[in-house]
Write a structure and sequence with these properties.
The chain is an all-beta fold and 702 residues long. The chain is built from two helices and 47 strands. It has a 26-stranded antiparallel β-barrel. It has a 16-stranded antiparallel beta sheet that branches. A two-stranded antiparallel ribbon has the order 37-38.
């Protein structure tokens, strides 16, 4: 311990006494006060008068304190503590504090989130659990704290008791607010009020669990209620379950949802769990959704069937952070030379027409060195596929095995790959008609090319550009004529007797710690017959030019301001985009950022549709303003206007949002506005228009 104290003296027994102020420092901590008595051999320290005890991210004021510095234990009385975490100050007053090696216990506590807070909690005891060593993978206060027990707390708003829990637990890996409330109006819901309240519960046998309750009032669609559960275990993984029910939901329909079509009971259950196996993982998900919405007279159900309307109305932020609902599970495991995956996937609704994989086994061998630059690679997919609505099913096997290599000679690179592809169907059935025998087909293919690497360096940046020219050749397939099962994925398409020229490039720009990489590849038909494509549905397409397709991707950051990511595939033979996504973010100033999102929504009836969403965010000290517009082809030039204002308070976040929507035909469809408050939440803002989804991560008392 390092001790600075003017006018100190040494009492009998080697005890240091100072009565004119002191500053003591040890193990990253600092203690200040008026008087001190320190017995170093006996590991006993007592101080009083304007005591300030400083620890990382924690400041404690006390009337008096007693410590055993070497044993790392002690007590303090008449305490006021300030805890800094992620931009917030937690303020707690306690009659006394007990300090132990891995725990700090506060007695008779009143806590809030600082000056100006309207909410607080009162409880007889709070226990703060500490790590024996700081966790470098955490930030701030959470680097030192593993969890908090809050015993029998009472929540108060402006001093009035409003909530009481017999026991409450806080774990820093769960960053959810204590409660949320949302008011607003939309066409399908009417005027609505939605409320969530949740709490973590004490850890048991290593399981950390949280429960939430939810209640909805909607003037048009009806009342709803639900519950959510979340759990985590360091060994057995993590998961969640969501339950929501509308006992009597009024379903809107007709033109712009202007009429009440029917009343029904609607229920949703969505549960999932995942386990990390080290070299693999296990994942399972079960979803139950309401059936398709009843239709208004004169309206025809879409051919594809099913929709996400129920989730869009009641779980809008959930759509942004989770994939489409499904039932299934999978396990994957990797060994040094291969990866194996087994899974199953079913549709959550009977009316959905997507292909179901009742059982799939996928084995993949990544490129493995044989000798020198020569490497081997391959994969195999065995799947039991079903299309129940069409009474179509089959066991499908798709394989690919290859040998190849890349050799650099200075800045010149030569590459070549050769292999075999195969596709086989067993136990087939098409539209109720059994296939009398198995069908299989295979072919040989080769790819080769030459590339040149150009490098250019500047004072702070490096640019590498690598163009490539080559050929891709596949032989005429051998075996049976494959029937069209129409499972609708890339593995169901077997391209054969294809001859293409290939042109492409790979480029990388490095500037300090920032890297931006982009790749593009185009294929060109050598012969007229190579311009023909038979898609998964058996439809024949002929390209207008020799360009067959173009694909590419980009990802990375240019300096501290601009971030880009995206990928695309355009097939020129059917003359349509197969996929396209892109996101760009630019930090104009410290407080202003702009973004642009583009996404392809394939529409077989009306052609491809590109959804564009340019927007911006302006961040002030406590205010944040978000705005965006959504642009889709057809209808109005601007389809959706969205604006949201949030105000960060010391004990929550107040959110105002407004959204104006046009219908696909260009007329007015809906305007949705809402006011929400996240109690003990953060500045995190959802930008989907719901105006009160889950906030971002921050420390919050529960």
């Amino acid at each position: 311990m390092s001790l600075e104290a003017p006018g100190y003296h040494i009492a009998p027994g080697g005890v240091l006494v100072a009565q004119q102020g002191f500053v003591a420092t040890y193990e990253g901590k600092r203690l200040l006060g008026d008087t001190i008595r320190y017995d170093e051999p006996g590991d006993d320290l007592y101080a009083e008068g304007s005591i300030v005890y400083l620890m990382p991210k924690v400041r404690i004021h006390a009337e008096r304190i007693g410590l055993h510095p070497k044993a790392r234990t002690g007590k303090a009385w008449k305490v006021e503590a300030f805890i800094e975490t992620r931009g917030r100050t937690i303020h707690a007053r306690a009659e006394r504090i007990e300090i132990e090696t891995t725990r700090i216990t506060l007695h008779d506590v009143e806590a809030d989130l600082g000056y100006g807070a309207i909410g607080s909690i009162h409880c007889p005891k709070i226990r703060v659990y500490l790590f024996e060593e700081p966790k470098k993978d955490r930030d701030g206060f959470e680097e030192y704290v593993s969890g908090v027990d809050v015993v029998s707390p009472t929540g108060r708003v402006i001093g009035i008791p409003v909530l009481w829990f017999p026991y409450l637990y806080r774990d820093f890996t769960f960053d959810y607010p204590w409660s949320r409330i949302l008011f607003g109006r939309s066409r399908r819901l009417g005027y609505f009020a939605h409320y969530w309240i949740g709490s973590n519960i004490p850890a048991f046998a290593g399981w950390h669990t949280r429960l939430e309750a939810r209640g909805d009032l909607n003037s048009r669609s009806g009342q709803g209620f639900g519950a959510n559960g979340y759990w985590r275990h360091d060994v057995f993984g993590r998961g969640s379950v969501e339950y929501f029910e509308m006992p009597k939901e009024t379903v809107a329909g007709g033109v712009n949802d202007s009429v009440d079509v029917a009343e029904r009971r609607a229920r949703m259950v969505d549960a999932e769990h995942q386990v990390n196996l080290g070299k693999g993982a296990i994942y399972g998900r079960y979803t139950h959704e309401p059936e398709q919405d009843p239709l208004a007279p004169g309206f025809v159900r879409p051919i594809a069937g099913g929709d996400e309307r129920f989730r869009a109305d009641y779980f809008r932020t959930d759509l942004d952070r989770r994939p489409f609902a499904r039932r299934g599970g999978g396990v994957t495991y990797g060994i040094p030379f291969a990866t194996l995956a087994v899974d199953t996937q079913h549709n959550p609704q009977r009316d959905l027409r997507g292909t179901e994989r009742w059982l799939g086994v996928h084995a993949e061998v990544p490129p493995a060195t044989i000798i020198g630059p020569l490497h081997a690679a391959g994969y195999a997919w065995e799947e039991d596929l079903h299309r129940p609505h069409d009474d179509t099913e089959a066991d499908r096997l798709r394989v690919d095995a290859s040998l190849g290599g890349l050799q650099w000679i200075g800045g010149l690179g030569l590459d070549a790959t050769g292999g075999v592809r195969g596709l086989r169907y067993d136990r087939g059935r098409i539209a109720g008609v059994d296939q009398t025998s198995s069908q299989q087909r295979h072919l040989l293919y080769t790819e080769s090319g030459v590339r040149v690497r150009f490098e250019q360096e500047g004072p702070t940046w490096t640019h590498v550009f690598t163009p490539r020219a080559g050929v891709e050749l596949s032989s005429v397939g051998q075996g049976d004529v494959l029937p069209a099962y129409g499972f609708g994925d890339a593995r169901d398409v077997f391209e054969e007797d294809q001859h293409f020229y290939v042109l492409g490039f790979d480029t990388a720009l490095t500037k300090g710690p920032y890297l931006l990489r982009a790749r593009a590849k185009s294929r060109w038909a050598m012969r007229d017959e190579d311009r023909v494509l038979v898609d998964a549905a058996g439809v024949v397409h002929t390209g207008p030019t020799r360009l067959a397709d173009v694909s590419g991707d980009i990802e990375g950051q240019i300096g501290p301001r601009l971030t880009l990511s995206g990928a695309f595939l355009y097939d020129a033979r059917p003359r349509r985009w197969q996929s396209l996504t892109g996101v760009g973010n630019y930090q104009v100033t410290k407080r202003l950022a702009v973004h642009h999102v583009i996404n392809l929504s394939p529409d077989t009836a009306g052609g491809d549709r590109f959804d564009n969403e340019p927007g911006f965010s302006f961040q002030a000290d406590r205010y944040r303003f978000d705005g965006s517009v959504t642009l889709r082809p057809g209808g109005r030039p601007v389809d959706v206007y969205f604006a949201q204002l949030s105000r960060s308070m010391v004990d929550g976040t107040l959110i105002f949002s407004y959204e104006y929507q046009h219908s696909p035909t260009g007329g007015f469809y809906d305007q949705r506005y809402s006011i929400g408050f996240v109690f003990f939440g953060t500045e995190g803002v959802d930008t989907d228009g719901s105006g009160g989804g889950r906030s971002g991560s921050s420390y919050s008392l529960r």
